[in-house]
Structures are given as structure tokens and as C-alpha cells.
Amino acid sequence: MSDYLVSPPATVSLPIAGDTRRFPVRRIYCVGRNYLDHIRELGNDEKEPPVFFTKPRDAIVQDGETIPYALATQNYHFELELAVGLHSGGIRIAESEALSHVAGYAVALDMTRRDLQRALADKGKPWDVAKGFDHSCPCGPLHLAKDVGHVATGRIHLTVNGQTRQDATLEQMIWNVPAIIATLSQQFELAAGDLILTGTPAGVGPVQPGDVLVGEIAGLGTLTTRIGPQA
Where are the transmembrane segments (predicted)? Predict the structure, then answer.
């Protein structure tokens, strides 16, 4: 007889490049407004610090999969981001110690229901419905820091159907990875398995069923995501 009323949810994980093991995802934290050009393209106040929000871990989608066009939106957007996976955590982590908690890095997408986000923001309401929905976090394999180093520079680039839509460098982030980890740990107890999306550069835009998105970050390979019809 099971100890549970219903079956426990399955473990959500990412493959690890060059390794047979997988990275189990505990929580997904996201940073908003971390590239100045993206802040400006959305008409937000560039003097405000980046904001933090979360996605459910089962929003993860593996590299190469097709995701349905999201429910309840007519303006479904891509946002390409550097993801950081942690092998340990804590509270009040010093910025100088932050990278010691990083297991590795990956290419990720923060898929967004932009029309819902704008409507919620206009009313001062939280973004959960606009950000934390099904299939909203496609993510590529984790590349271990011991193999690729700590990723802080290089091109971040996304194409839709072969056409460049986002093209920037990681150096343009307002808050770098150590600063993000240190700040998050002031508000949450971070732990092994946490995945942090670090914000997107300018060029975000809508997708349609049939589109093929290919995101690439220097040294981390590519992430391919196809958009299917709405369920």
C-alpha cells in the first residue's frame, strides 16, 4: 500500500554535458530587467534594480522538444537567458563566495505570455500567470563549471526560423552571476538543484506555431525549441 494519496510528482532533471548523471531541479529562480537594452525596449525604468520571480520546476522542457503555443495568450514571447545550476547553497552568501556554489551553466528560454504580463503589471499585480505556466522553461544540458569555467563573457544569440532576433554579450548584464546569487540568498535559502535564469537582452518578440527557436551561448552549445499548435 502506498504512503501517498496520489503518486508523487516525478523528478525533474537536466542532462549534464559529457556525463551520464543528471542535474535534478529543485527550484527555478529568474531575474528580470538585467540588460539595459531590454529594459529600454519594454519601456521600464532603467534606474530600478532587476526583479526576481519564479517558475515551477515542471515548467522545464528538454532540448529539441516541441512545446504547444501557450494557453490564454495572443502574444507569446521568447527570452533567451544564461541559466546557472547550483550544487550547494545557503543564506546570506557573500558575493566573493558565490561561484563556489555553482555546478554549471546552460542555455535557457524564459517563455512569457507578454499580454498577460503587461496587463498584470499595469495593475500592480504579480507576474505568476505570465511567467510560471506549463512548458515555459526550455533548457539545454548543464555544462559543468569544472569543464567550461565560470561563464561571464561571450555571445548570447537567438534565431527564429534562421533569422537573428537576439544578439548580445553576457558582459552587458547589469548584475553578474555572483551578485545575483548573493542577492537571492538574502531573500531565499538557496540549495543544491536550484536553477537561476539571469535575464534576457533586447530583441524579445512573439512566436507562432511552426516557429523554430535556436538559442546559443558561447561555450554552452545550442538549445532548439519548436512551437506547436495551441492545445
Answer: none
